[in-house]
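Sequence, please.
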């Protein structure tokens, strides 16, 4: 059994829990996206075992969960998602650890780091959040995760050449990007309390008063 994935998962989980993410649940607006993540995401992760195709289609949803819950709370939720996936599909403990790492923790962490970089060095604006962080950022983070996963030995299919697998990972990343960008736009417009990473004071600042 490969111990690297479980070790990295437990390390990320320990770091996340050190921030006491359960305190975020004092914001009752996060209960709905948390429950949605636990109910819907396991089915997305289980897709390769529920249908048969040469290249398995597998959406992650981790970047969206990270935007909704924040990194400290998203990490334990993604670990629970991996455990629930084991109840939905016939996967081993090793596969659950790999899913928790490569479908959950790594893209959520890259998305968090990219979001912090955008807030630090890019103009703070509504469209920067939706297009930069939620849409394009998700595509970049998911493809980077896929490339790292393939480099570490995680293959999409034993019958697919590595070069073709990278093309497939690039296309799959855009599926996650469209889903995350669309849902982020909807939440910003109608349910901003469902996004722990959203702030009106940061991204929708009032216009500056004219000087006297």
């Amino acid at each position: 059994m490969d111990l690297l994935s479980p070790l990295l998962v437990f390390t990320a989980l320990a770091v996340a829990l050190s921030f006491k993410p359960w305190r975020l649940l004092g914001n009752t607006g996060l209960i709905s996206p948390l429950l949605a993540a636990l109910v819907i995401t396991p089915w997305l992760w289980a897709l390769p075992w529920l249908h048969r195709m040469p290249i398995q289609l597998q959406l992650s949803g981790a970047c969206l969960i990270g935007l909704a819950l924040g990194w400290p709370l998203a990490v334990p939720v993604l670990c629970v998602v991996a455990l629930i996936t084991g109840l939905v599909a016939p996967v081993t403990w090793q596969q659950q650890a790999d899913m928790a790492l490569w479908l959950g923790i790594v893209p959520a962490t890259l998305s968090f780091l990219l979001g912090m970089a955008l807030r630090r060095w890019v103009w703070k604006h509504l469209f920067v959040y939706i297009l930069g962080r939620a849409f394009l950022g998700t595509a970049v983070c998911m493809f980077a995760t896929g490339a790292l996963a393939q480099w570490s030995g995680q293959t999409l299919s034993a019958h697919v050449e590595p070069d073709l697998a990278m093309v497939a990972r690039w296309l799959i990343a855009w599926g996650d990007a469209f889903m995350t960008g669309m849902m982020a736009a909807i939440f910003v417009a109608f349910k901003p309390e469902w996004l722990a990473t959203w702030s009106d004071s940061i991204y929708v600042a009032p216009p500056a008063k004219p000087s006297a």
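The mean pLDDT is 89.
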